[in-house]
Amino acid sequence: MTPLLEVRGLSKRFGSVRALDGVDFDAAQGELTGLIGPNGAGKSTAFGCIAGAMRPSGGSIRFASQEIAGLAYHRVARLGVGRTYQIVQTFADMTVLESVTTGALLRHPRVADARAHAEELLAFTGLAAKRDRLGRMLTIADKKRLEVARALATEPKLLLLDEVMAGLTPAECRDAVALLRRILERGVTVVMVEHVMEVLMPIAHHVVVIAAGKTIFSGAPAEAVRDPGVVAAYLGPPLEAAS
Amino acid sequence: MSPRPHLIALAAIVVLGLLYAFGSKDAVTLDLVFTLFLYATLGQSWNWISGYAGNISFGHAIFFGCGAYAAALCTNAGLSPWLAVPAGALVAAALALVTGFPTLALRGHYFSIATIAVGALVDTYVRTQGWLGMANGFELPIKNGLGWLQFSDKGPYVALALGLFALVQLATLALERSRLGYYLRALRANHAAAASVGIDERRWKLIAFTSCATFAALAGVLYAQYTLFVDPPSTLALSISIDIALIGVVGGIGTLWGPLVGASVYVLLAKEVALRLGGSGKGYDLVIYGAIICLIAAWRPHGIVGSIIDALRRRRGAADVVSVQNPAEAA
To answer: Whole-angstrom Cα distance, residue B158 to residue B36?
Structure first.
């Protein structure tokens, strides 16, 4: 079976800076693919290019066997790619219910239908009690949860999660992992960027490591931490080799 | 939230307004009320694109002008100004489409600057065109009756302005509950996040811009038939666009009742000062109005209605927090 998402030779230049310089990876249908790498490796840039927020400088992005590289942001969303942001981007002056309803309007143009669908997702994500709070009044954990609910409301086939665990307390992390498992049970394919390794490793089916804009590893999570190239990218070369 | 309280309030305003329009013989106050509803309509029109969608327009007078000029041309050609209703609305919508397409996706102040430029362009163009009366403008021939939208009393004008305001208010109430309304607010809040849930910014903002341009054009038709004189300074000038924007800002941008409140402040202030101070007070209303704008800009950026909504929400929010902290007490 062809993967839901196939990224080949993805590159993105900002002037003379090569943020991405040949990123390759696949995300298989129904699986959770973890995208990891040191700070500045280009993970969020890769997300931006896949979601359509940025135009890649080169390479190919095939989603459900369709080329989407360079397609307008809202059109990629319409095809079935949902995302959250590393730095949360809530609709500050909308309530939780209104924000999620806005997402649901993509597939349910009638407001009443969209609202009903949004209510369902608020229950699913555990935000039902806060439905009338304004986006800007939420805690960081709830803002991230709201972004997940809003993205799910567009009924995506592929969900891109950019550091949804960052800044959460251990208890909040556990809740987020439980939510993630429920999302996978719905059959949504997930690609997530994550720094909290101990969170990612047990739930990821597949791990892709990016360093300096290139893919340096792709495989099972347990192998990633033993791979010499990955270790070197994170910690530098081994001491005996350096001396 | 149920639309019922808004509908009841609107019905009350319409009933009281109609009783007043046909009951009063006080020409000065009738003129005041006419202006009030005309400006409230223009303010609400502006509110669609600048309040709900967040693209601050300083060129809204040109759509008002489309209606006013259409009415003047029709009446002078011996045609009913009712023809100017679709014609003016169509021209305004076309103008909004053409100017909005390249500018609505501009960020920050650039849209506002573009609207000033387009406004100046239209103003200058009209001043050079013989068939549009050059800089001198037009007088409209005096007729009578509903067919000509001209009346010997001010009452029917007030009723028409009130009717137009009520229609626009109903449209706005529908907007708040529609897909378009949700999308505009989402785009205003965060255009990138809006795109991430599939919202095509240009498409939805163009729909809003062309719709609200037609409201302003309808107000223009009514205005021309009321004053029987149309020229660039009274219908197209930047100062009119700014007045419209300030009414929206003072009342509360992105709120249903903001434009009516803003227009009330604007109109009542002008008349009160003029009545109390007479000729010696000329311009004082603008001084006070300016001070109010400064105060709102500094302390209440959400405007009068916006501040009231905030205060209500805070009270409800505070109750919410208490109930979370003391579940026993809440139970």
So the answer is: 9
Which residue from B186, B196, B320 is facing A73, i.e. has the nearest CB?
Answer: B196
Amino acid sitting at position A150: R
- Among B64, B107, B90, B102, smallest CA distance to B216 is for B64
Residue A133, chain B, CB below 8 Å: the answer is yes
Pairwise CA distance, residues A32 & A27, whole Å: 8
Residue of A74, A75, A111 with shortest CB distance to B179: A111
Cα distance between residue A213 and residue A215, in whole Å: 7
Task: Report the distance separating Cα B220 and Cα B293, nearest Å.
Answer: 26
Count how many Cα atoms sit within 13 Å of the Cα of residue A115 in the half-sphere of its side chain.
12
pLDDT for residue A7: 94
pLDDT tens, residue by residue, A206-238:
999 998 889 999 999 888 888 888 888 887 777
Locus of tokens 């993970």: A43
Q: Read off the DSSP letter of residue B142.
A: P
DSSP B11: H
Chain A contact set for B254 (CB, 8 A): 93
Please, what is the Cα angle at A150 between A144 and A151, to 5 degrees? 90
For the cut 90, the answer to whether the pLDDT of residue B163 exceeds it is yes
CA distance B45 to B218: 10
**Residue A132 or B288, more confident:** A132
Q: Are A5 and A189 in contact (CB under 8 A)?
A: yes
Average pLDDT over residues B307-329: 62
Give the C-alpha separation, B327 to B272, whole Å: 52
**Could B178 and A111 be called an inter-chain contact, meaning their C-beta atoms sit closer than 8 Å?**
yes
- What residue ranges do the domains of chain A occupy? 5-90+157-242
Q: Which helix (H) or strand (E) holds A20?
A: strand A17-27
| Highest mean pLDDT out of A176-180, B130-134, B170-174, B237-241 | B170-174
Give me the pLDDT at residue B1, please.
62
Between CA A149 and CA B57 the distance in angstroms is: 34
Q: Find the closest chain A residue to B200 by CA distance.
A: A74
Q: Which of A74, A87, A89, A152 to mutate to test the interface with B (most CBs of B within 10 A)?
A: A74
Q: How far is CA A169 from CA A38, A122, B119, in A?
A: 22, 21, 54
- Of A133, A145, A180, A143, nearest to A34 by C-alpha is A180
Average pLDDT on B281-296 reads 76
Mind telling me how many Å the CA of B202 is from chain A's nearest CA? 11
The domain segmentation of chain B, as residue ranges, is 4-236
Residue with tokens 């601050």: B56
State the CATH class of domain A5-90+157-242.
alpha beta
Q: Give per-residue pLDDT as tens, B66-86.
A: 999 999 999 999 999 999 999
The CA angle A207-A211-A216, to the nearest 5 degrees, is 55
Q: Is A134 on the interface with B (CB under 8 A)?
A: yes
Q: A210: helix, coil or strand?
A: strand
pLDDT of residue B89: 96
State the amino acid at position B192 in one-letter form: A
Token output for B126: 């009209």
d(CA B245, CA B48) in angstroms, rounded, equals 11
